[in-house]
Design a protein that fits this description.
disordered N terminus; L-fuculose-1-phosphate Aldolase; single chain; alpha+beta
C-alpha cells in the first residue's frame, strides 16, 4: 500500500510540476510578445503554494530558446531543485516577495521602457485618471535607491526587501497595489498567477506612458479625487464589485 501511495504522489508531483513550468513558460513568452522585454531582460516566476515550489525563467537564456525543459525549479527557502540551468539572477527578489505576500501566485520583472524611465527618475506614478484607478489603488510607489551596504550584502534579496519595506512604510496593501518601481532599476509586478503578473506589467507600462505625456501637456496636473479613485477601483475589485460578467446583474 505504501509503494502505491508513493507512486501516486510521484505522478501527482510530476503533473503539478509540468503544469507549473508550462504556466511560467507561457507567461515569459507573453512578456516577450508584448514588447515588455528585450534580449534576455526580465523574468516571470510562478509558485505552487502546496509544494512550496517555484518555477522561474533560466538566467541569460534568449526568450526564443525557452522551453518547459529549461524552466528552473527552486524551493521557497531558496534551494535549487534542478541542475541543468541556473535560475534568473533575480530569483532571490522573487522569493522575498512570495514569502512576504502570502496570497500571490506569480511575479514578473521587466525593464519595460516607460516604467523603467520612472524608476530611473526616482518617481512614483501618480494616479491622474480612471485608467490608472481601474487597476491600482493610488500612486504606484517607487522605492528609495538601494544603499551601498545592501548591495554588498545580497543585492537581489535586498531588492526584494526594499519592495516589501516600501509598501509597508507607505501603508500600501499588496493586494490593492500589484506593482512597485525599484529605483534606478525597473518594475516588479505580481498577481494571483504568472498570467496576471504579466497582465499587470502590461497595464503598468500603458499607464506609465499616459502619465508621462499627461505631465508633459500639463506639468501642474494633480491626482484624481479620492471619491473617483474609490469608485473606479472598487467597482472592479471591491467586495461589491459590479464590473464585468462575473458579478451579479444590477
Amino acid at each position: 500500500m505504501g509503494n502505491i501511495t508513493n507512486n501516486m504522489n510521484n505522478i501527482i508531483d510530476k503533473k503539478e510540476i509540468k503544469e507549473l513550468k508550462e504556466k511560467v513558460l507561457e507567461a515569459n513568452i507573453e512578456l516577450y510578445k508584448s514588447n515588455l522585454v528585450s534580449f534576455t531582460f526580465g523574468n516571470v516566476s510562478g509558485i505552487n503554494r502546496e509544494r512550496n515550489l517555484i518555477a522561474i525563467k533560466p538566467s541569460g537564456i534568449d526568450y526564443k530558446n525557452l522551453s518547459v525543459k529549461n524552466m528552473v525549479l527552486v524551493s521557497l527557502d531558496g534551494k535549487l531543485l534542478t541542475s541543468d540551468y541556473k535560475p534568473s539572477s533575480d530569483t532571490k527578489t522573487h522569493l522575498v516577495l512570495y514569502n512576504a505576500f502570502a496570497e500571490i501566485g506569480g511575479v514578473a520583472h521587466t525593464h519595460s521602457r516607460f516604467a523603467t524611465i520612472f524608476a530611473q527618475a526616482l518617481k512614483s506614478i501618480n494616479c491622474l485618471g480612471t485608467t490608472h484607478a481601474d487597476y491600482f489603488y493610488g500612486e504606484i510607489p517607487c522605492t528609495e535607491p538601494i544603499k551601498d551596504d545592501a548591495i554588498q550584502r545580497d543585492y537581489e534579496e535586498e531588492t526584494g526587501l526594499l519592495i516589501k519595506e516600501t509598501l509597508l512604510k507607505k501603508g500600501i496593501d499588496y493586494k490593492n497595489m500589484k506593482a512597485c518601481l525599484v529605483a534606478n532599476h525597473g518594475p516588479f509586478t505580481w498577481g494571483k498567477d504568472p498570467e496576471e503578473a504579466v497582465f499587470i506589467s502590461k497595464v503598468l507600462e500603458e499607464i506609465s506612458i499616459q502619465n508621462l505625456y499627461t505631465k508633459l501637456i500639463n506639468p501642474q496636473v494633480t491626482e484624481i479625487s479620492k471619491v473617483l479613485l474609490d469608485k473606479h477601483y472598487l467597482r472592479k475589485h471591491g467586495k461589491n464589485a459590479y464590473y464585468g460578467q462575473n458579478s451579479k446583474l444590477k
